[in-house]
Structures are given as structure tokens and as C-alpha cells.
């Protein structure tokens, strides 16, 4: 039964194009609203892991991804509504430009998301070398798809008070929406990046001080009250429950590598495992041994930055290799795949890894796989039925070489995978792929993983070998 109970206020931060300042503004708003005593639920449009890690840190609540390539519209809407429970304000950070999508019609764009959720949009505009032309730009965005509710503008890279007056007058006179922020040009607002974008929040030792610095800088330049007024104008769609999810009693202990190296996990994936009956046990790959577990989940991250430390924890690598040979179910994505290979070569140095997958990893300057993936399951495996179509994403600067006689589960229809045609290496009860999956896109995944792990719990012989 659909409920009409009022949801929290909501606003979406977008821009005409990428690198306009959306992330800095979104971080500041999450933290500043939180400091006012409001509970802020952050969201990120798209499959990204890194921006959500920062939004999580700023808001103090787990950021959720909203992705229309992964999820049917009704599933996304239900996920949004469920995540908003208990929050005062939902803040969504868009991706790229407002109308940039999967095709010329803008399918899957931030605008598509805004229409689906019926959420008001604030545009962050980089005003460098611009005055009155801002009105033509914003008016074009308003008229391009009138059912997208552009409700305000934040000016970024403003050169001074005279520049600000001209911009504000143009927007308010011709576009009839308020300017709710004016951010001066300030190099101290730039955030440190590297080869794959921002440094993830858990890995960045200056993360909290960076958020504090951004807040101090932007607090006097954002009209928080006006932004809240826009958020309060949100009119939610009727509530839709997430279907097909039932909590099960404890069936298996699944280890999750969660540390500075491996931290790319969608919250929904961990929650899906828990609902399917998994007791999650978190493991630090840099200092722990393998605890008593019935399955192991190794997510994404940046192993190339911790190669010496990963190699130094030889006992954990041996524990994992021996456990896999004894039949331990392991599901690994991207960095997890790399970790299970023989080793990783980066900047002329070779570092040994687990060695259970007969392949070597070579890092590259340019991305080898970047974007959405669609694949068909073509090989029998314990996780997905043959014929199933999977949708995920990849973003890796590495490739596998010297592959010896491995079996692949996926045929790639869109994307790159391991070799441009295949992905998903199968070995015993190991499944390792470059493709990242979202549990709301593939509900079969969590059930299959926990079921396989529970069978391992019921087999005392292999468990006994691992825990002697």
C-alpha cells in the first residue's frame, strides 16, 4: 500500500557542466546544515564511489547512489524514499552537466533524475569571464525541459562585488529565480586530486580539516535560509516500498575487506548481504589475519597505492589463498580482482599478491575501462544464472596479462571488462571481475552469495582446516 506520509525536504545541486563546483558546494551544504542540527541524507547521481565517501563524511549519514542505468525508475524512487527516512533534508549531488545523459534525449541524466523525483534544482554556475550572458544560459536551461524545476542559482568564481551585482541582476531580472550563493574565486577551495579524481575520504588524512576549511570559506557566501526554502518546496511522489527484500536469520559469516585500500562498497550491497542472512565481519587487509568466515567480499579501491603494505601482510595473503583452495566463496571487484592475482607491477616495481588467479596486473597511465558495463552471463558459476543480463560500471587503470587457462563468466556487450570481450574470472568458488555491481540492480547476487557461504558453514571439514 502506498503511503502519503510527508518526506523530508529535498534539493538537487547541478551545473551546466562538470568542474563547476558542485562537489564543494554539496559538501559545504551537508556540513553546514548538519551544524544547524539538521539530519542530512546525501545522495550522488551516478555510480561514483569517491564523491559519496566525502558526502558521507560531511553529512554523517551514508551517501546513496542514484543511477538510472543500474536501476528501474520505481526501484530508484523506492530506494530514495527509504533512505530519506529519519532525515530532515535530502541533498543530491548531480553528475556532469544537468542534461548530460546516455543519449541525445538525456536518458539517465541528472535532469531525468530530477524529473523522476520531482525535486527542485539549484544550478552552480562557473561565472569566469561572464556577466549578462549568464541569463541567457540559465534561461536556456529553464526552457530546454520546462518540467525540470530550476529553482535557484549559485554563482561560482566571482571576481568581486561589481561582478556579483551584474550577474545577480541578470539572473533575477530575466530568469525570475533567486541567486542563493555567490562564491568568490579562491584557490583554497580546490580539492586535491590524483589519477582517478579526488582522494577517497577514508584514505585522506586531511579529509575532516578539508571539509572544515570549505565550510568556513563558504558559510558567508551561501544563503542557507533561501536554500532551505527551495528544499521545503519539494513535493514527494507517493511512497513506494522496496519489494522482494526479507530479513533472514544468521546464515553465514561473510568477511568484508574494509580499510584504506578497499573501501568502494555501495551501502545497499552490504545491507543486502545482511538482509539475506549474512553476519558481516570487517577485515583490515594491511594488518589483520583472515578470521573465521564462511565467505569473503573484496571490493574496489586503490591497491596500487599500498602495494608494499599489502605485500608485507604475507600471512593474510596465505590465509586467503589456502582458504580459497579449501573452498571458501570469494566475491571480488576491480581492486579485489587485482589483489587475488599473482602480483601487481607499478612504476617499475613488482609486488606479490594472493596469487590464486593465474594473471599479472600491469598499471597504466590511461584508463583501460571507464564507464557503464552491460554483460551477459555465459558460463556456469555459483553466483549468477546463465543468460542473465548484468548492468554495472568499471573504472580501472590496469590490465591483466599472462592469463593462463581461466574461465570467464561474462560476455561484455558494452564496456571493456578484462580483455574487451570477457569479464568475471571463475575459479572454484571465487568470482572476480573488473565490473562493479549494485545490489538493487542484481538482487540475485546477495541471496546467491549468502546461500553459497552458508553451504560452506555446513561443511565442517573445510572450516576446520582453515581455523586450526
Structure description:
- The chain is an alpha/beta fold.
- It folds into two domains: 9-232, Rossmann fold (3-Layer(aba) Sandwich), CATH 3.40.50.300; 252-466, Rossmann fold, CATH 3.40.50.
- Helices cover 31% and strands 27% of the residues.
- The chain has 14 helices and 25 strands.
- It has helices spanning 22-35, 50-59, 73-83, 110-117, 133-144, 161-174, 207-218, 224-232, 267-275, 307-312, 314-325, 335-340, 444-457, 460-466; strands at residues 9-14, 40-45, 64-66, 89-93, 121-126, 150-158, 179-184, 193-194, 197-198, 252-257, 262-264, 278-283, 295-298, 300-301, 330-333, 341-346, 349-352, 357-363, 369-377, 389-396, 398-401, 407-414, 422-427, 430-433, 436-437.
- It has a ten-stranded mixed sheet.
- Strand 23 (422-427) and strand 24 form a beta hairpin.
- Helix 1 (22-35) packs parallel to helix 2 (50-59), helix 1 (22-35) packs across helix 7 (207-218) and helix 5 (133-144) runs parallel beside helix 6.
- The longest helix is centred in the N-terminal third of the chain and has 14 residues, at 22-35.
- It is globular and about 70 Å long.
- The N and C termini lie far apart (52 Å).
- The model is unreliable at 461-465 (pLDDT under 50).
Please supply descriptive tags for the structure shown above.
seven-stranded parallel sheet; Rossmann fold; 14 helices; 468 residues; ten-stranded mixed sheet; alpha/beta
Mean pLDDT: 94
Helix content: 25-40%
**Backbone CA Rg:** 23 Å
Largest sheet: 10 strands, mixed
User: What's the oligomerization state?
Assistant: single chain
Q: Which spans have pLDDT < 50 for at least 5 consecutive residues? A: 461-465
What strand line-up does the widest sheet have? 12-10-13-15-24-23-22-19-20-25
- Can you tell me the CATH architecture of the largest domain? 3-Layer(aba) Sandwich
User: What is the number of E strands?
Assistant: 25
CATH superfamily of the largest domain: P-loop containing nucleotide triphosphate hydrolases
Return the domain count: 2
Shape: globular
